[in-house]
Sequence to fold (412 residues):
Amino acid sequence: MQPNLYNRQKEPLLIVISGPSGVGKDSVVNRMRERGLPFHFVITATSRPQRPHEIDGVDYIFVSQDEFQRMLEHDELLEHADVYGQQKGIPKEQVRQALDSGLDVVMRIDVQGARAIRALFEDALLIFLVTQNEDELVRRLKERRTESPEAMKLRLDMARQEMESVDDLFDYCVVNADSQLDAAVDTIVDIINAEHQRTKPRKVSL
Amino acid sequence: MQPNLYNRQKEPLLIVISGPSGVGKDSVVNRMRERGLPFHFVITATSRPQRPHEIDGVDYIFVSQDEFQRMLEHDELLEHADVYGQQKGIPKEQVRQALDSGLDVVMRIDVQGARAIRALFEDALLIFLVTQNEDELVRRLKERRTESPEAMKLRLDMARQEMESVDDLFDYCVVNADSQLDAAVDTIVDIINAEHQRTKPRKVSL
Fold:
């Protein structure tokens, strides 16, 4: 008889929330945070300019290009990517501490970053967000108003390309429809709960 | 671009709720049914005597030994098992119709039956129920009062044996603790919701 079947040890999960630009990764992760769920939310370091309403150290760790370069050179980043000329990266030590604390770790990254995480951790839990349809994605990108028409076209082309690789790269696909943010978050929480009941738990270590 | 990524077709799941005698398979499935969840609940045919409070055609389809034999000979059962001298089987046509209707199918069967279902359907979703500890299981078996001490010892030995094969056979393991029936049902519903978001859905056909 397996003594560990009763009261199994809970393995912390490394959860990646990803998807194309405009799908609502920030909204989803912010809502998860607002709910006070018992996860560690990773804060990405970026060299891109701070947007209005974004708080340094909460939404992102905003650093200069020079500081980002220093972090790269000192191997302080778990993964990093250059997206549309803006650099983002995940501080390694932050993730290590979070996993060591036994908490599930949630990170919001683009598809390029999700691919890097999968290469590092086969057992990472990768969730891809989609809108209900492409029109919804286009409208959200337009509403953002931070993009030039050229940048938006680039993002839309990229989104189409990214969606082709969903099935190979990601474990789950969750719809984040207009006015259904809480439903999307509920589904993600269901997925995390379910994953903790697997007879073969995912194992990540850093 | 994959046109089916938006508005994916939902694949019906074949869900097996299993576990040792006394773990509360009936209670869990009955509570799922009471909640009016949109599943088809398979009704097992059995040649064992009807217990008080059990309703024919609801809890089980109670048949004579002769009728059970006839069903077997006409290949009308998806799987069947002889458990402690009592025969149980799942009517094939019932499951086929349920899956064709597009509904998730829920069946409550013992571990022997779960193994038979896995052999038939690699993509079946197998959930194993456990109590919090062995004392809880022993107490529940005693409270049932339908067992002789010998039968109970047999069931307990069997439970210990079954728990050894959990990780190889089952996809998920859910605790059905005393006074926590709704929590167990919530977790099962989370698992089903999560499974419907998989990028590689399970596929069963009959």
About this structure: The mean pLDDT of chain B is 91. Chain B touches chain A through 33 residues (CB under 8 Å).
